[in-house]
Amino acid sequence: MAAVSLRLGDLVWGKLGRYPPWPGKIVNPPKDLKKPRGKKCFFVKFFGTEDHAWIKVEQLKPYHAHKEEMIKINKGKRFQQAVDAVEEFLKKAKGKDQASSHNSTEEKNRRNSSEERGKQSAGEEKRKAGLSEGKQKRSTGEGKKRASSVSSERGSKWPLKRALDQSPRKRGRPPKDEKDLTIPESSTVKRVMTGTVAGFKWPPGVSEPAVCYQAITKKLKVCEEETGSTSIQAADSTAVNGSITPTDKKIGFLGLGLMGSGIVSNLLKMGHTVTVWNRTAEKCDLFIQEGARLGRTPAEVVSTCDITFACVSDPKAAKDLVLGPSGVLQGIRPGKCYVDMSTVDADTVTELAQVIVSRGGRFLEAPVSGSQQLSNDGMLVILAAGDRGLYEDCSSCFQAMGKTSFFLGEVGNAAKMMLIVNMVQGSFMATIAEGLTLAQVTGQSQQTLLDILNQGQLASIFLDQKCQNILQGNFKPDFYLKYIQKDLRLAIALGDSVNHPTPMAAAANEVYKRAKALDQSDNDMSAVYRAYIH
After folding, report:
1. Which stretches are transmembrane (predicted)?
2. From CA 534, how far away is CA 531, in angstroms rounded?
3. H or E element: which one contains 179?
4. Measured distance CA(498)–CA(129) in Å, rounded
5. CA 307, 312, 316, 321: dihedral to nearest 10 degrees?
6. For a Cys-Cys bond, which of 88, 136, 364, 448 suits 390, CB 3.0-4.6 Å?
7. Least confident segment among 180-184, 443-447, 467-471, 512-516
């Protein structure tokens, strides 16, 4: 990788995990966002997306020097839209520069013109004065009158010169709101050697990054090298497995909720052909604009696609989607594939698998561990079980939507594992809320408690993010409280089915039920805190 020297305002290519090098601009970070420790990095805003990130300098290349190379190896629609956005930005910036240059030239010309007129006026005055002195002197009264006339003439012309000097400056000054729009057309780059596109690789000795999150208020990425690993702060649209070749199979997706929306967005970004359906049709509009196709019913989506994914809220919704009018089952025929990503119980998923397979279809369960943020970031953890061949066929899709996936064997295993994972997460969240309220009522600082926890063995992205939600009173849903309570309920039932005690989950479940009674169902799970303060 060639060494480069960059500055604020430079246009660059930034490498984000599995995604191709993407065009962006070095900008000032938000005031409340700290620069990561370690290697030198810049804060980059990427074109054609809402992504922005701290990117290590070795993962950046100057835009103009590598434009042709990047365009040759990247042909995706979203990539081309991003490049078009850069060119449009440059075109506008160039137009403003030309307008500013024209105004500056015009101002200079006017200044020269006014100065020339001033010189001519002064010369005329001197000539008249010389003629006056060569003539016979007249009466003292006439001499005074002529002197008064010359003085009046001089006084009337010099103010005119000052007005001409000042006027062009006002007309040539750009509006205040345009100042920040002007950027250097090319990077200030000191090249030590010429790099190629192939130079966009992880540095020697650095493995493809493991992931560690740190909560911040907006989708922000931080790539920071520390002891051979990469730390990513809320890495929007960032993954860790290198480039993806999208499958040539037609993909369907049913359900565009908190999780489904992020999944579909990442499938489209990675070049998959996707047909979408949602019970509330308006939610499809954004994805249609991004290149997705619209399916009128679940049956139509399944019949026109090779692999159809679904992600809905609970067991009832999952069954209705498959067995209801114009449902999935009506579109199933031999060879059609159905992947259910909903978090449901093992009995529900087993029943759905049986009816799909009975029609000649192939079935895979693939619930996901994560949140809306992680879904948007393409950083979900996928737990799969069922048809192993279908699992392999979904490889490029799983890479687009998640950082890793596990195949757990026969149908039902993924559902059980997912409920156990969410049981642990839900119980932990309730304990966090309990600790923060206990700190408050005993006169301890909640912020200090968080600082202590973040320095200890419990430190995690989840802990920090949820505590920040509570301290800021921000319960915008990243994982609905009603859904974590549903998962706790199903996990407790799973324990009952094998006569295994789950007293901690049962206690947490009661706290969430109280929070629901306080009208917190549609808030984030961290709103369980309110069950302790009411």
Report:
1. none
2. 6
3. none
4. 118
5. -40
6. 364
7. 180-184
Supply angle C-alpha 281, 287, 289, rounded to 5. 110
Cα–Cα distance for residue pair 200/55, rounded to 1 Å: 13
Amino acid at 108: K
Name the H helices within 135-197. 140-172
Residue 193 has what pLDDT? 32
What span, in angstroms and rounded, lies between the C-alpha atoms of 460 and 303? Answer: 43
Interatomic CA distance for residues 159 and 169, integer angstroms: 16
Strand pairing category for 274-277 and 293-294: parallel
Q: How many CB atoms lie within 10 A of CB 82?
A: 19
- Residue corresponding to tokens 């062009």: 168
Q: CB neighbours (10 Å) of residue 125?
A: 15
CA distances from 34 to 37, 54, 217, 379 (A): 9, 10, 12, 22
pLDDT at 117: 58
Residue 92 structure tokens: 């506008």
CA dist., res. 391 & res. 397, Å (int) = 10
Q: Two tokens at 38?
A: 């370690």
Among the residues of 365-517, which ranges form H helices? 372-377, 388-393, 395-401, 413-441, 446-454, 461-472, 481-497, 503-517
CA torsion angle 36 37 39 44 (round to 10): 10
Give the pair of three-digit tokens for residue 53.
């990130």
**In the predicted structure, residue 219 carries a pLDDT above the cut 70:** no
Alpha-carbon distance 118 to 158, whole Å?
A: 7
Coil vs helix vs strand at 353: helix
How far, in Å, are 169, 174, 257, 330 from residue 181 at the CA level? 20, 11, 36, 54
Tokens 């005993």 label which residue? 442
Pairwise CA distance, residues 433 & 528, whole Å:
7
Place of tokens 């966090």: 432
Query: Cα–Cα distance between 41 and 6 in angstroms, integer?
Result: 10
Return the amino acid letter for 229. S
Burial-class residue 135 by CB neighbours within 10 Å (0-12, 13-18, 19+).
Answer: exposed
Say whether pTM exceeds 0.85: no
CA distance 350 to 359: 15
Q: Enumerate residues 6+ apart whose C-beta is below 8 A from 111.
A: 164, 165, 168
| Dihedral sign from CA coordinates of 202, 206, 208, 213 | negative
Which stretch of 19-33, 129-143, 274-288 has the lowest confidence by average pLDDT? 129-143
Between the alpha carbon of residue 421 and those of residues 184, 406, 488, the distances in Å are 50, 13, 10
Cα–Cα nearest to 59, from 15, 96, 5: 15
